[in-house]
């Protein structure tokens, strides 16, 4: 894939980096090599590749979603230093 200097300038602008004119040619060649390598990898035949197997058999351990009895609100509020309308009252924080 051919990368011209205008594309390099466009990418530099998007990245908000400053590139000197002397560097444009170098970056153009470097980016062409990277994209050529990516095309090679993209065209590899992976149909016969083995599936990756993780030797550590970790899986998500989710708990069952069970309905449980709620805590007694009056009992919880009874321990509060100060309450208002059945809720904890705390100092204003700025």
The number of distinct helices, counting runs of at least 4 residues, comes to 3
Quantity of strands, as a count:
2
Overall spatial form:
elongated
Give the rounded overall mean pLDDT: 88
Could you state the order of secondary-structure elements as H and E? HHHEE
- How would a crystallographer describe the biggest sheet? 2 strands, antiparallel
- The SS-based structural class is mainly alpha
Strand proportion, as a percent range, falls in under 5%
Q: For the terminal residues, how far apart are their CA atoms?
A: 57 Å
What is the rounded Rg?
31 Å
Uncertain stretches: none
User: What share of residues is helical?
Assistant: 40-55%
Trace the largest sheet across and list its strands. 1-2
How would you describe the overall organization of this protein?
This protein is mainly alpha-helical. It has a domain of 38 residues. 40% of the residues lie in helices and 4% in strands. It contains three helices and two strands, in the order H-H-H-E-E. It has a two-stranded antiparallel ribbon with strand order 1-2.
The gist of it:
The protein is mainly α. The protein is 40% helix and 4% strand.
